[in-house]
Amino acid sequence: MPTFPASDGTLLSYRATGEGDPVVCVPGGPADSRYLGDLGGLSAHRRLIVMDLRGTGRSAIPRDGSSYRCDRLVDDVEALREHLGLTRMDLLGHSAGTNIVTQYAARHPENVSKLALIGPSPWAVGVTVTGGARLDVARLRKGEPWFPAAFAALRAITEGTGEDWQAVIPFFWGRWDAAARQHHEAGRPRNQEAVARFGAEGAFSPESTRAALASCGAPVLLLTGEFDVNSPPVMAAECAEAFPDATLVVQPGAGHCPWLDDAGRFVATTEAFLRGRSGSRP
Fold first, then answer.
1. Average pLDDT for residues 120-144, to the nearest whole number?
2. Which phi and psi (to 5°) does residue 42 adopt?
3. Per-residue confidence at 189, pLDDT binned at 50, 70, 90?
4. For residue 25, what are the β-bridge partners?
5. Beta bridge partners of 5
6. How confident is the model at residue 173 (pLDDT cuts 50, 70, 90)?
7. What is 3-126+190-275's CATH topology?
8. How distant is the alpha carbon of residue 195 from its chain centre?
9. What is the pLDDT of residue 184?
10. Of the residues 45, 104, 140, 266, which has the fewest C-beta atoms closer than 10 A?
11. What is the residue-wise DSSP string for 217-269?
12. Looking at the predicted structure, is the pLDDT value of residue 279 above 90?
């Protein structure tokens, strides 16, 4: 895999798949970017530049553990852009990675052509995901055989009386089958220090980020799954309000990794957006 140096000298890696205009992709977690695969076949239309966040995948562990903080990871995205020689770039983030690319767009709006937020996380723009919103989405799965136990665990989490996150994992997938189980295992974060420090004090400045985004002219796609308890559609709609030119898409039957649940629909939606269709406020 090719590598490039971060501003602090940490050697970071990325992989490139597909042909066409590049899209720089930032994973969530922080976890090994391999769980993104080729985003359901998006590489048939665009060249995907998928970075490994520091301390994950084949990227080196930094000497300074505080550099795992989300706002500081923005500098790694900029280092990758400079390494690739891109004047402007299409940028895609998934889950926790959407916080990184959102802060990047706020800090470097002139470098972003289009911004795709898949399974968006709300921390960067200061939106709260309520327990009620998660439970409303979860109730859509009441016909599933695993629903009773998983819903009881989710309710306990939202009420602050439990923390059995393992029990609620099926809610993150459009289909809780063998493929989802395998994908869940591949995407589990391995570097617990990176996870713990990602949201450390100072990682997010929602007021200043939203103020900067108000002048960001790049079209933005926010795509979440109908069944995504991590990124409920009502929350994604609220996040969309932080951008002047935003399109919200709720993919039917999908969970937190919509390219796994319906690759054709996901690729068609994302490729059409990246191809140049301008967004509009939902």
1. 96
2. -60, -25
3. confident
4. 50, 92
5. 11
6. very high
7. Rossmann fold (3.40.50)
8. 14
9. 87
10. 140
11. -S-EEEEEETT-SSS-HHHHHHHHTTSSSEEEEEETT--S-HHHH-HHHHHHH
12. no
Q: What is the 3-state secondary structure (H, E, C) of 68-108?
A: HCHHHHHHHHHHHHHHHCCCCEEEEEECCHHHHHHHHHHHC
Q: Cis link prior to 30 (omega < 30° from 0)?
A: yes
Q: Which two tokens stand for residue 141?
A: 């799965």
Query: Could you tell me whether strands 22-26 and 112-118 are parallel, antiparallel, or unpaired per DSSP bridges?
Result: unpaired
pLDDT tier at 199, thresholds 50, 70, 90: very high
Provide the 3-class DSSP secondary structure of residue 113: strand
The residues, any chain, with a CB within 8 Å of residue 188's CB and separated by 6 or more, are 31
pLDDT in tens, 46-78: 999 999 999 999 999 999 999 999 999 999 999
Residue 273's Cβ-count burial label (10 Å; 0-12, 13-18, 19+) is: buried
* Structural domain boundaries in the chain: 3-126+190-275
Question: What would the two tokens of residue 67 be?
Answer: 């550099």
